[in-house]
Amino acid sequence: MSTSSATIYLKAEQNVELQSPDVYLKDIGKLTCSDAHILAKVKAIKLHHFKKDSEKRQVISLLKVIEEIEKVCPGVSIENLGEPDVLVEYINVDKHKGFIQWIKLLFVACVSFFGTAFTIMAFHNDIGINDVFSKIYEMVMGQPGDGYGILELSYSIGLAVGIIVFFNHIGGRRITKDPTPIEVEMRVYEQDVNKSLIETADREGKTIDVS
Predict the structure, then answer these.
(1) Does residue 113 lie within any of the structural domains?
(2) Could you give the CA distance from residue 183 to residue 117 in angstroms, rounded to a whole number?
(3) Quick one: pLDDT at residue 168?
(4) 55 and 102 housed in the same domain
(5) Which of 53-57, 87-91, 144-148, 202-206 comes out lowest in average pLDDT?
(6) Between 181-203 and 150-167, two packed helices, what is the crossing angle to 10 degrees?
(7) Inside any domain, residue 210
(8) Does residue 190 sit in the same domain as residue 110?
(9) What pLDDT, on a 0 to 100 scale, did the predictor assign at position 130?
């Protein structure tokens, strides 16, 4: 098959994380072509190299990708089905291993646990949950309650069950296949961060683009 009659379909990702300093075209998304020879040549195109002291993030424009493809395979047709810009992040895995990483993990876990516990207690104290339970008990039973009773116990159990259902996890097991609200919000947040980084790099002229 001649190069002029071949079509390359590219589905570029918005964000790509790599453990190698060399960025090849195959790393930024999925590619397909009816000509296996052309596909192999295109996948091997080198787009960027992260230097040791350089920034570990780089935005690559799809126009630059198309330009590089046309240099290797003149006359080929290119169809991009993905993002117009790709944010590539280089992560040095060896750098994040060791005792320091476990300290960071423990710190985040403690902040999440105790922070959540403090928030729940502060909320209950703010609305006066004990007074509410006392009033309800007195209205139903006709006399003031003596200490903690069935209302407090039921509320505590319901709160725990509600948290489990909301996060859709019991230990390491997922209750249902649906994503949890927190997972949905994290995906939205991730997309917003990626878009912001891409726009910032474009405004600062740091995007790898056509001249």
Answers:
(1) yes
(2) 21
(3) 78
(4) no
(5) 144-148
(6) 50
(7) no
(8) yes
(9) 80
Model pLDDT for residues 80-124, shown as the tens digit of each residue: 999 999 999 998 766 656 778 888 889 998 998 899 889 888 988
Helix (H) / strand (E) element for 102: namely helix 99-127
Band the pLDDT of 30: cuts 50, 70, 90: very high
In terms of domains, do 123 and 82 share one?
Answer: no
Q: Say what percent of the chain tops pLDDT 70.
A: 93
Shared domain check, 157 and 133:
yes
CB 186 within 8 A of CB 167: no
The domain boundary, picked from 95, 122, 153, lies at: 95
CB 78 within 8 A of CB 68: no
Residues contacting 144, CB < 8 A, separation 6+: 134, 137, 138
Domain that holds residue 196: 96-202
Which of 78, 95, 112 lies at the terminal end of a domain, its last residue? 95
Residue 146: CB atoms within 10 Å: 7
Specify whether 198 is located in the same domain as 100: yes
Letter string b/e over residues 158-189, b meaning 16 or more CB atoms within 10 A of that residue's CB: eeeeeeeeeebeeeeeeeeeeebeeeeeeeee
Residues 110 and 44 in one domain: no
pLDDT at residue 25 in the model? 95
Question: CB–CB of 11/81 below 8 Å?
Answer: yes
